[in-house]
Amino acid sequence: MLHHHPVHKTNNSVFHKALNFVIAIVATASPLITLPQLFDIYTKKTASGVSSITWLMYIFTAAIWFYYGIIHKEKAIIINGILGVILASLIFFGTIMYG
Hints:
By secondary structure, the chain is an all-alpha fold. Helix content is 72%, strand content 0%. It has helices at 14-29, 35-44, 52-72, 75-98. Helix 1 (14-29) runs parallel beside helix 4 (75-98). It is elongated and about 50 Å long. The termini are far apart. The mean pLDDT is 91.
C-alpha cells in the first residue's frame, strides 16, 4: 500500500485502490525493462552503441527518486529507485568495460 502524504486526500474508491495496485506493479517492474540491454552487454561482451553518459544520468535520476521515496515513505518509489540504481550501474559499468 502506498503511503498517504499529508497533502493527499485519502480516497478508498475502487478506482484509487486499483490505481495504487497498478502503480506498485509498474514502479517495481519498469526498471526490469533494462534487463535485455544488460544481458546483451555482458553476454556479447560489447557495449557498442550504448552511451555511458546516458546510463550515468539514469543512475543519477534513479538515486534522486530513491531519496524522494525514502523522504515520503513511498515503498513503490523506493523499490523503483533501488532497482534503477543497481541495473543502471551494471549497464554503466558494462559500457566502461566493453565500450
